[in-house]
Amino acid sequence: MSKRTVFTTITPLPPGITRESVLETLHSHVEMIDLNPLVIERHPVKAPSKCTAEEFHAIWYEMTDKVQYLPGGLMSGKVSYNACFHDLSNGLQTHVYAPLGLDIKGKWSVGGTLPHEPKEPVEIGLGVPKEGLYLREDVDMRCKIGTTTFVKKTLKRAHSTLVERLVEKAHLVEREIHNNRLSEQNSIFSYYSGNGPTSPGFPPPPSSSSGSERYSKQDINSFPTTWSSYQSMGNPQPSPLFSQNDYQKTNVYDQDTRHSYQSFQSNRPTPQPSYTSNAEIQELDATSNQRHWK
Length: 294
Fold this sequence. Notes:
Largest sheet: 7 strands, antiparallel
Shape: rod-shaped
Strand order of the largest sheet: 1-7-6-5-4-3-2
């Protein structure tokens, strides 16, 4: 006769661990298997014939646990079983088909809110923290009445170690992300502060404690100042659409145009200033007055 047992385990996550780092581990099925201290062997298999239609398309593994039946290692044994893994947006679902009618359905999820996120109502009666993130494990298992206590105790002890290792792994992931972010920021700062790569055509700016002079006189003298200097830096090729004859024709046209303009300027008569005598000015004034009185 089998008995159903349902229980939930809440584990608060330390500050500094993000939801993404924990979900990354939950969605890594091989890593979740290896974090379990009971598992000593694993390999992927096809879905068994007794699984449901929904579980048929899940990822299946055959695993072997080493179980201590008596304290101190006085009696131990190996148990092989099949289990499926199904990823969720906020966690992971598992289903174990073990011998002697042991059936365990598990669900791992990441809950809680971070300081910059809106707070949500928490479920009462489970010891859920009101602030910060937490890892939740929901277990629904069926086994024989005589083995329920042993199976539950063994499962909770093994999963407690699994969670400790998972949290430590999350710390390592966050540390690596933090160090990579600092390295990128230092590279960007070094680039814009003048220590980054420079153009191959110009010398790099000299390091100066005062920062008042970006280039010395020796550096400025080494810069190319004429077009011939730029040409000496490489081997420029003429355009295929503009031949040497076209270039010579253009020079001849420019010379003829310049010569014609100079000839026109030299033959142009010099304008002479015009002067008005006093008698002409008086005659103009008299004419203007007569028109005004009329």
